[in-house]
Every structure is written in structure tokens, then in C-alpha cells.
Specification:
With 651 residues, this protein is α+β, with helices and mostly antiparallel strands. Helices cover 36% and strands 18% of the residues. The protein contains 19 helices and 23 strands. The protein has an eight-stranded antiparallel β-barrel. A seven-stranded antiparallel β-sheet has the order 3-2-1-15-14-13-12, sandwiched between helices. The radius of gyration is 28 Å and the shape is globular.
Length: 651
């Protein structure tokens, strides 16, 4: 079906659903709600317009939104299709969505329940609760549950053991965690480095302390008390619910392609499947400090502790609560958590001071969270405009003294910065080059006293490069040009070891570390490209060898070795591209990679020696020796590049 026709049909169906009574759950439709003054006048019309635009113009198939206020669900509605192929619309009460990492909030809630009961300590070494060892780093303090909840444990990121496309290769939680322990990049408590592994550890500790399976704990202590009867952690879904789950889609060549049901091996990080109305109940419980109708999840003291600020990468920025992180919108400080899988995206926003909660979920990816940001920003502009207090905060944050950076200039901040959340184990490290989640940010001086950040992003226009200009406000502090209110801040700091870090205000769960000049070069694709060019030169040399020498054994050596080098190089680049999509187990081809790289170097050396020794017999001039020598140097350079990116130790 033509894509334009498909989008037109989608828009027409959505528009039709908006006019059908009962197609969406609107104000006062949820059990327990009562008639009265409308807290957000025109809310349904407002969200309808925004979501319809996203479906028509922004690569969305289906979505659902729920809004809670003062202990009530005041709005819940579905948009688009739960199953595009079958034409099944989204129902806010019945359609199940994968909520991704928003599931972590259930893990953290279960942790705080055990802390409240005295069975678990926030500030004790987690090793006391595990049956396998997390290697200790000399002269560093041990990792605690507090570090896991604030994402300051210092773990490298990893997707090993995280996802599966079927149930046949499921490992137990303990087996997966013990098998895939990531590297420690930072001392505990130094900087945020978002960690799925850390959240999974917390879920496993819940199992160990409670003596029950993780799924059972969440079911008994959270889902059942809140009446979240449609939500489930079962993977695959029970047969009676499989027809209710939305089909996840990704867009390829502008067309939505249905994806299979994802199994999250590490369930505490993202295993929950739920309708938005159930998620509304969870938000109300947190906004009411643990209470929902007759149910009590935790005491008010526990709720206050969980929601208060616990850690900041810099005092001038939004920070981490316990499990939640802060997000500044229109001068309001939300508690939030996003969730993304390969084919679903979601985000929860809580504004405790207004007793407000919003949850939105899509059955398509949301590159860089653009659609979610559009929703929450538009909502706040309409219902929570910038206040005088927020405007005053901008003046206070900027300070009044002349910037101490003036002596060195803003060029001291320029360079290439890598995310503190990044994979470093095995060949998965290469994802830093290709995966938008990990791509580094380049900081340059843009002239007129401005800094400019440039980051490759799948959701950006202009060849996929997101460019942002920043104006200096105080020492090490910059604000995004054109940003309104107390938002859009960027901070540079140095640690005790002299390393430079960059932190964004509304990206509390991670920061960016400046690379050294040597490391910066290794992030460049010039090295492997140079090898390809050198090998192309060798091929050219092989072609121009006088035909009369084709019977000569030396010519045979030349052609055979050149062919071997080309074959190995092509195979090598194929493997590198494949590594971007690695999820879990490593195939045999990657285990052979060190051997192929070794053959690459041996072949280049052998070819050069053969040409030097036999150049007269081959009828080659002295100048032709430069080509194989250059190829050897390029190959040696590649070995350094390959060593840095773990190609000699891919598993």
C-alpha cells in the first residue's frame, strides 16, 4: 500500500475515533473519579491535536496518554493503531504496551519497601546480598544500593544478556548477571553513568532478600495492591493476553515494519507490559507518598526519601532522586523516567508539588525522545507557564562576576566527549562509533564567544547531526542560545585526576568525558579507511605487473597474497558492521576475528618482503616498493586501532 495513502487512512481513522463516544477514556471515566471543576480546560482537544499531528507527520503508529491530578485519573486515551496490519486501534484500558526502562521504577519501589522493612540497607556493600562477587577496585569504596539507585556505581554499559527474541535462550537472572559483569569505569559516587546492569542487580537483590522470584515480588507488593490487573511481567505474555499487546514497529524506508515480541532477559530493567490506565494508578501511589485508595505501598517518609534530590553531577544542574531523575520544564522540576526498547518508547513525568502525573507510550521508537519532549513542553507551556521565580533563577544561576574562563578562553572546553554511559567490553565497544545512544559529542568554538556541540543523532535533520549553540553564563556554565526560562544548561568540570567532564542539565543519568588527543584519533574512521586505500594501491600494483611474469612463482605469491588481504579486509569490515547489532551471545565469526587480524598483518609483511627481495625478478622499479611499505604501515596502524576497540578480544 502506498505510504501516503496509509498515512491518510491512519489520520482519518484517528480523527474518526476522536468523534466516537467511548473510543477514548476521558475526564472522570476511570473508576473512582468524581465530577467537578476541570483541572485542565480543553485538555482532550489539546492532546488530540498534538497526537494526531505526531501520527500524521512524525513516524508514529500508535500511542496512549494518561494524566492524573490530585489522586484521580483525569484523562486517558489511545491514538492510532495497536496493530496496524489488522487495523486494531489503541484502547487506553485494554491495549498492553512494553514500557521499557520505566519498569525500573517498580524495581526501585520494591527496593524501598525492603529498606523500610529493615531487610535491606541503602548504604551497605551490595556484596553482602549477592552469591557471586563483583570485582573490587583497589582504593575505591564498595558499591551500595544507593549507588545503584542513583546510577553512580560506575559500571560500563552493556547489552549482553539484556534482550532475546525468543524464550529458548533465557538464562536465569543470577546466571546472566554473573556471566556478564561489566567493567568499572568510575569510582562509585563520582559521576552518573546510567546502568541497566545496576538495575538488574537491584532486582536480583530483591529476590535474594525476599526469598521470592522478582516477578512474584512485584506482583504481590505493587501490581495486585494497586489493582493493576492487566499489567504483567510474564515473558512471553500469557496466552489470554497475547492478543491485547500492541505490535511494536520500526520505520524502514519510510514504512512501518512489525517487530516480534521482545523478551527482556533482565526483567528488573524493562520487563513490564501494561496499559496506560494501570500506569496511572502507579503514578497516583507515588504522588500520594505510597497511598492509593485502600492500598499502601510504603510510608510517607519512604516516599519523601525516594523523591528528594540525592546526587548532582554539578550543584547548578538537575540531579538524581532514588530511581527517578529530575527534569526541568518551564521552571518546574519534574521527577521522570524514560523507557526505550527497539520498538517501544515511553516516559513518566511526576510533578509532586502539583500532584500531577503524565505517562505517554508509543509502539514505535522515539529518536532522542523528541515526541515525548514535544508533549511535556507543550503541556507545560499551556497549563504551567514560566513564573517570575523561574525567571529569577536564571539571573541567580548566571552570577554577576566576570568569568574566570576568560584567561584561557572557551577553547579550553573544545574537544571530543564520550558518554559516561558506554560499552567497553569486547567488540561491543564498537557501538560507540555506530549506535546513536553512544555516539560522542564534539565541542567546537563557534565564534562570537559561543560554544557549539555537534552530535550524530538518528532523530536529527541535516545529515543526522544535531548542532546546538551555547552562550557562556558563568565559569564553566553555558546556556543554550534562544532557550527560554531556567532551561538548557551545560556545565564543564574537572575531577581530581584532571579529567574534563561535560554535563547537560536535563540529562541527569549520565555525563560526557573529554578524550585525550590520542583517544580522539582512535575514534576517527580514518585509520581503517587508510588501510582500504593502501590495499587498493596493492591491487593496482598487481594489475600492472607485466603479463610475462604471470607464470613466475613470485608473481603468483604477489597476486595470492593481495587477494588474501582484500578478502580478510572485506570480512573484517563486515564483522565490524555486524557488531553494532549484537545482542547477547557472540557468533563464531567474531571469535575468529583475532586470527583474521593476525593473518592481515602477516600477509602484509610477507607481501612486502617478497616484493623487496624479488623486485628485479618481477620487473618492478624501486618506487613500487613504497606502496607495500605504506600498506604495512597502514596495517600496523590498524592493529593499534583494532586493539583499542577490542577486536583482538571480541568476547
Amino acid at each position: 500500500m502506498n505510504m501516503k495513502l496509509l498515512l491518510l487512512m491512519s489520520s482519518l481513522l484517528v480523527a474518526g475515533l476522536l468523534l466516537v463516544p467511548g473510543a477514548g477514556l476521558s475526564a472522570c471515566a476511570e473508576a473512582g473519579a468524581s465530577p467537578g471543576a476541570e483541572p485542565f480546560p480543553g485538555l482532550e482537544e489539546f492532546i488530540d491535536g498534538l497526537m494526531t499531528d505526531q501520527i500524521s507527520n512524525k513516524g508514529m503508529v500508535g500511542a496512549a496518554v494518561v494524566v492524573v491530578k490530585d489522586g484521580k485519573q483525569v484523562f486517558a486515551k489511545g491514538y492510532g493503531f495497536a496493530d496496524l496490519e489488522k487495523g486494531i486501534p489503541v484502547d487506553p484500558r485494554e491495549t498492553l504496551f512494553r514500557v521499557g526502562s520505566v519498569s525500573k521504577l517498580f524495581t526501585w519501589t520494591a527496593v524501598m519497601q525492603l529498606v523500610e522493612q529493615g531487610q535491606l540497607q541503602l548504604y551497605e556493600d551490595i556484596g553482602a546480598y549477592l552469591n557471586f562477587a563483583i570485582p573490587q577496585v583497589p582504593q575505591q569504596k564498595p558499591i551500595t544500593m544507593w549507588h545503584l539507585m542513583t546510577h553512580t556505581a560506575g559500571f560500563a554499559d552493556t547489552s549482553k544478556g539484556l534482550l532475546s527474541k525468543g524464550s529458548h535462550d533465557q538464562l536465569s537472572l543470577s546466571e546472566s548477571l554473573a556471566r556478564h559483569i561489566p567493567e568499572r569505569l568510575y569510582p562509585p559516587g563520582q559521576v552518573t553513568a546510567y546502568s541497566n546492569y545496576g538495575a538488574a542487580l537491584a532486582g536480583y537483590i530483591v529476590e535474594r532478600v525476599s526469598g521470592k522470584a522478582y516477578n512474584q515480588v512485584i506482583e504481590e507488593t505493587i501490581l495486585r495492591p494497586l489493582g493493576m490487573n492487566r499489567a504483567t511481567l510474564d515473558q512471553p505474555l500469557p496466552p489470554d493476553r497475547q492478543h491485547q499487546v500492541a505490535t511494536g514497529c520500526v520505520f524502514r524506508n519510510g514504512k512501518p515494519v512489525a517487530q516480534p515480541f521482545e523478551i527482556i532477559r533482565l526483567a528488573p530493567t524493562g520487563g513490564l507490559t501494561a496499559p496506560v490506565t494501570d500506569m496511572g494508578r502507579f503514578m497516583i501511589a507515588h504522588l500520594q507518598k505510597g497511598h492509593y485508595e485502600e492500598a499502601t505501598l510504603f510510608t510517607e517518609a519512604t516516599g519523601r526519601e525516594m523523591h528528594k534530590l540525592q546526587f548532582q553531577n554539578d550543584p547548578r544542574l538537575a540531579g538524581m532522586a532514588l530511581g527517578f531523575y529530575q527534569l526541568r520544564v518551564n521552571g518546574r522540576l519534574f521527577l521522570t523516567h524514560a523507557g526505550d526498547t527497539t520498538s517501544f518508547s515511553s516516559q513518566m513525568y511526576l510533578l509532586p508539588e502539583e500532584n500531577l502525573g503524565i505517562f505517554v507510550v508509543y509502539n514505535t521508537p522515539d529518536a532522542a525522545g523528541a515526541r515525548r519532549q514535544e508533549l511535556i513542553r507543550a503541556f507545560c507551556r499551556r497549563y504551567y507557564p514560566v513564573t517570575e521565580a523561574a525567571s529569577a533563577a536564571v539571573v541567580n544561576r548566571k552570577g554577576t562576576s566576570e568569568s574566570p574562563a576568560a584567561a584561557k578562553g572557551i577553547t579550553q572546553y573544545t574537544g571530543l566527549y564520550v558518554s559516561t554511559r558506554r560499552p567497553t567490553d569486547g567488540i561491543e565497544k564498537l557501538r560507540q562509533l555506530f549506535d546513536p545512544l553512544y555516539r560522542p559529542i564534539r565541542v567546537v568554538a563557534a565564534g562570537n564567544g559561543l560554544l557549539q556541540t555537534r552530535q550524530a543523532s538518528a532523530g536529527s535533520a541535516g545529515n543526522g547531526i544535531k548542532i546546538t549553540d551555547w552562550e557562556e553564563a558563568d565559569f564553566g556554565l553555558f546556556q543554550q542560545t534562544g532557550e527560554e526560562g531556567d532551561e538548557g544548561w551545560l556545565v564543564f568540570t574537572n575531577d581530581a585526576g584532571g579529567r574534563t567532564f561535560m554535563f547537560l542539565d536535563n540529562l541527569a543519568p549520565r555525563g560526557y568525558q573529554k578524550l585525550t588527543r590520542w583517544e580522539k584519533n582512535l575514534y576517527s574512521p580514518v585509520w581503517p579507511i587508510g588501510l582500504v586505500l593502501a590495499l587498493a594501491a596493492l591491487l593496482t600494483l598487481a594489475v600492472v605487473v607485466p603479463q610475462s611474469f604471470l607464470g613466475n612463482r613470485h608473481a603468483v605469491i604477489l597476486l595470492t597474497t593481495t587477494g588474501l588481504l582484500v578478502f580478510v579486509t572485506v570480512g573484517y569490515f563486515y564483522v565490524c558492521q555486524f557488531a553494532v547489532y549484537l545482542r547477547g551471545e557472540v557468533p563464531l565469526t567474531l571469535r575468529l576475528l583475532p586470527l583474521l587480524l593476525g593473518l592481515n598483518l602477516i600477509g602484509a609483511l610477507g607481501l612486502t618482503i617478497s616484493l623487496v627481495v624479488n623486485r628485479k625478478a618481477l620487473g618492478l622499479g624501486t618506487w613500487t616498493i613504497i606502496i607495500p611499505i605504506a600498506a604495512v604501515l597502514a596495517t600496523v596502524a590498524l592493529q593499534q586501532w583494532a586493539w583499542f576497540w577490542n577486536l583482538y578480544r571480541p568476547v
